[in-house]
Automatic annotation (TrEMBL), chain A:
Protein name (Swiss-Prot/TrEMBL): Rim9p
Record's subcellular location: Membrane
GO CC annotations on file: cell division site; growing cell tip; plasma membrane
Organismal lineage: Eukaryota, Fungi, Dikarya, Ascomycota, Saccharomycotina
Entry keyword Transmembrane: yes
Membrane topology label: Multi-pass membrane protein
Keyword annotations of the record: Membrane, Transmembrane, Transmembrane helix
TrEMBL record, chain B:
Residue stretches spanning the membrane: 93-119, 131-151, 177-198, 210-228, 248-269, 281-301
GO biological process: cellular response to pH
Any Pfam family matching the protein: PalH
Signal sequence bounds: none
Species, as recorded: Saccharomyces mikatae IFO 1815
Compositionally biased intervals (Polar residues): 526-540
Localization per record: Membrane
Name of the featured protein: pH-response regulator protein palH/RIM21
Record gene name: SMKI14G0410
Bilayer topology: Multi-pass membrane protein
Family: Belongs to the palH/RIM21 family.
Listed InterPro entries: PalH
Length: 239, 540
């Protein structure tokens, strides 16, 4: 259980980092791009073209490209998949997905460091929250593929890794919910049984069995005060 | 059409479709006078075109042929064959390939529908199975109408213009309202069936509820958004926003299909021990993996322009039919294998903590006890005045009506005066909320768990009386509900215990003799139960 939540937090941290890369592509930075195609570099907030002087000329920063944008050579913007330019507005799912992943990471950290991790309700909420997060992550990858097909650069392909990682996190959160639910049920049962049932040590019973000469039914009169070895103590109903 | 791609019409202009000035110098033979011709000094020529696209004869004109196309027409031909969309002349959009793919779609869909209606039994999840059958029939009907329309359209075009175009077929996908509406309805039903399949994959009640809620919400959202764009006014200033809605929903559908494929494949991986337990199981598993990946696969093929664009649209219905029906069949066979394994094992089916929490098993045990202690005749069991049995056996209804809050109310001190206080507003609101939640959960359970049927084919030879009696016993034991089975009892001998007990055998012999009578009595009771179960296991 402890290991699992650590793995979930680690995977979510990696996923968050993976999802940050598309946000810092051109024109925010000059070295990263979601896709490059015929000297054009596409980013989340715009696109750039490398001129004859090897200088990068970029559009204004905004989500989605404008069909009226023209490059330095006067060509109208075309996408590698020949999609409609207006479809590039769907790139808005990237920041939304990052926000969801960040929130999920915070929830996972809360589960890890606070006693809320033992609450099935909290885990159920987190697991439910992971479903739209996974869907958004998958949508990010699909949008990238739709716009740039196989011309994706490595920040684009990182979204595939982020989607797989998110799927793993999602599965692990649901498994954790099951584990916590079982644990809660077992603890409730053990509390209920501990109230009504006295506890006996098997070793003490064997010892008294060996020392006593009479029948085995006399063993039941062992005092409970001396039974202090919890690891070999069993609980159960006695009819 | 053109959900996300640029429209292709109007991109290429063909000069041969416009009037061309050929000049003078041509002799034209007059049709009625064999040996006379007319000298034409000003000739204009226009190639035969259909909707701005040139039409060419399928006859190959070789180089040594005395007849040749005009230069402009030949030039347009070179342009025409290089356009790789459905209005172009590339081999991908050849009419033969399209007709072959559409008719194979039709054959596959009808074949799967026949399997769904005949072969798949209604043992479990009867209502979802009914929905699946209706959806399959609707899809088959839709494709039948579609094929008929396509063939009639092609015949008409051929008779009128002497041409056969793939262009007209592809337009039916988006323009024909009958096809669009029936396709939408069948897809919606198939998506609900897929939610049902995912529900079947999980065994815990709470998870079933969550899947039901999430699945229904996702399906409804995707389909509502899918039908919105065609009915909106695209000339408004929010035109761009409406334009991105269709591709978004398209991607959303692909995301749902991918999630469905991931869940099914994960479940298949979990059951890898059962892949080769049955002759056809390995093959069916492979087929299931392939069909659930069809829709995401076609999306990838579509964006990478592997074959025709909008490939997913052409194969959409077939993808949904196969990915639902074949997965259902696979699950049915898997269930049979699992039940066999559970019946042979010591522990039977797994029990989850959720089932224990509401004293479900205690209630079930009381129900079984109630059923066994009652007389088996239907008249006696229905007799409400017969209080002799009811007084001995705890009534289930009293347990189900048991409410801890009532006990709390009863436990109030009689010395204090209690007014009919309504409580604070917060308590009232919480009460209302919990009541609403309970109602929603109740209806969810009704849909998820109560939609169960049983196969009547196995007992067709039995008389009606036996059937009714069996059904009554099944109902009493709760076997009409999903996830309740009776297994034959199995004797388990631990050798180590025997070895250990050898030393104490002499001491215990005397005790055994005294207890023998009780054991025999218990065995007699057990044997009646065992006989009862072994008789029933063959039929359930």
């Amino acid at each position: 259980m402890v290991c699992m939540i650590h793995i979930v937090v680690l995977l979510l941290a990696i996923t968050t980092v993976f999802e940050i890369f598309p946000l810092i592509t051109v024109p925010v930075t000059k070295y990263l791009s979601l896709s490059s195609f015929r000297n054009h570099y596409y980013g989340l907030f715009g696109w750039c073209v490398r001129g004859k002087s090897q200088e990068l000329m970029c559009t204004k920063m905004k989500i989605g490209y404008d069909s009226t944008d023209v490059d330095s050579s006067g060509h109208v913007l075309t996408l590698p998949s020949h999609s409609k330019v207006v479809v590039s507005n769907l790139l808005v799912v990237h920041p939304i997905s990052l926000a969801f992943t960040g929130t999920l990471l915070i929830l996972a950290v809360i589960i890890m460091v606070t006693p809320l991790g033992d609450s099935p309700e909290m885990l159920l909420f987190t697991a439910l929250f992971s479903l739209p997060t996974f869907m958004l992550c998958l949508l990010c990858f699909l949008v990238d593929i739709l716009l740039f097909i196989s011309k994706l650069d490595w920040p684009g392909w990182l979204m595939l890794a982020a989607t797989i990682s998110m799927a793993l996190c999602c599965s692990m959160l649901w498994v954790m919910r099951r584990v916590v639910s079982v644990k809660k049920y077992e603890s409730q049962q053990s509390i209920a049984h501990a109230r009504s049932v006295e506890q006996y040590s098997i070793s003490d019973i064997y010892q008294s069995k060996q020392t006593s000469n009479g029948s085995e039914f006399e063993v039941t009169s062992v005092p409970t005060d001396s039974l202090t070895t919890p690891e070999i103590t069993h609980r159960g109903f006695i009819d | 059409m053109d959900l996300w791609r640029h429209g292709t019409e109007g991109l290429n202009t063909y000069k041969s479709c416009h009037q061309m000035e050929l000049g003078s110098g041509m002799l034209i033979q007059l049709p009625l006078y064999e040996n006379s011709a007319v000298y034409a000094d000003h000739i204009t020529f226009r190639s035969f075109c259909c909707e701005r696209f040139p039409v060419y004869v399928s006859t190959v004109l070789r180089n040594n042929s005395p007849y040749k196309y005009l230069n402009e027409v030949s030039k347009d031909w070179q342009t025409f064959i290089q356009v790789s969309d459905y209005v172009g002349g590339s081999a991908e959009y050849a009419i033969y390939a399209l007709i072959l793919s559409i008719t194979s779609n039709f054959v596959i869909t009808v074949f799967v529908t026949v399997i769904c209606c005949i072969n798949i039994s209604g043992r479990a999840y009867k209502r979802i199975l009914q929905l699946l059958r209706v959806a399959s029939l609707l899809a088959s009907l839709n494709l039948t109408i579609f094929i008929t329309k396509v063939l009639r359209g092609l015949e008409k075009e051929h008779n009128l213009y002497g041409i056969v175009r793939a262009h007209s077929i592809m337009h039916i996908f988006s323009d024909d309202m009958t096809f669009v509406v029936l396709d939408f309805l069948s897809t919606l039903m198939f998506q609900f069936c897929q939610v049902g399949i995912v529900i079947r994959l999980f065994q815990r009640a709470q998870e079933k509820r969550i899947i039901f809620f999430v699945g229904v919400i996702l399906t409804m959202t995707a389909n509502i958004l899918w039908v919105v764009p065609p009915f909106t006014d695209h000339s408004t200033r929010h035109r761009n926003d409406w334009q991105i809605l269709r591709p978004f929903v398209y991607l959303f559908r692909i995301a749902i299909a991918t999630s469905y494929a991931s869940i099914v494949i994960y479940h298949i991986w979990q059951k890898k021990k059962l892949w080769f337990k049955f002759n056809q199981m390995g093959l069916l598993t492979l087929l299931t993996v392939l069909v659930v990946l069809l829709l995401p696969g076609f999306f990838l093929a579509d964006v990478s322009n592997l074959w025709i664009s909008e490939l997913g649209e052409v194969f959409n219905t077939t993808c949904y039919v196969t990915s639902t029906v074949i997965t259902w069949e696979w699950l049915d066979r898997l269930n049979v294998l699992e039940r066999k394994e559970e019946a042979q094992s010591i522990l039977g089916r797994p029990i989850f903590e959720e089932e224990q929490q509401d004293y479900k098993f205690a209630k079930y045990a009381l129900k079984v006890q109630n059923a066994l202690t009652r007389r088996e005749s239907p008249g006696a069991s229905m007799d409400l005045n017969d209080t002799s049995n009811n007084s001995e056996v705890c009534d289930l209804q009293t347990i189900s009506r048991y409410d801890p809050e009532d006990q709390m109310l009863e436990g109030r001190s009689i010395d204090q005066m209690h007014f009919n206080d309504k409580g604070t507003y917060r308590d009232q609101a919480l009460k209302k909320l919990s009541y609403t939640r309970d109602k929603i959960l109740y209806f969810t359970d009704q849909i998820v768990q109560k939609s169960v049927g049983h196969n009547n084919n196995s007992s067709s030879s039995k008389s009606e009386k036996v059937k009714q009696r069996k059904a009554m016993v099944r109902k009493r034991l709760g076997l009409d509900q999903n996830g309740v089975y009776i297994y034959s009892t199995k004797e388990v001998i631990f050798n180590s215990d025997q070895d250990e007990d050898v030393e104490d055998e002499d001491v215990e012999n005397e005790d055994e003799k005294t207890e023998n009578k009780n054991v025999n009595d218990n065995q007699n009771n057990d044997s009646t139960v065992a006989t009862f179960t072994s008789n029933n296991i063959n039929h359930f």
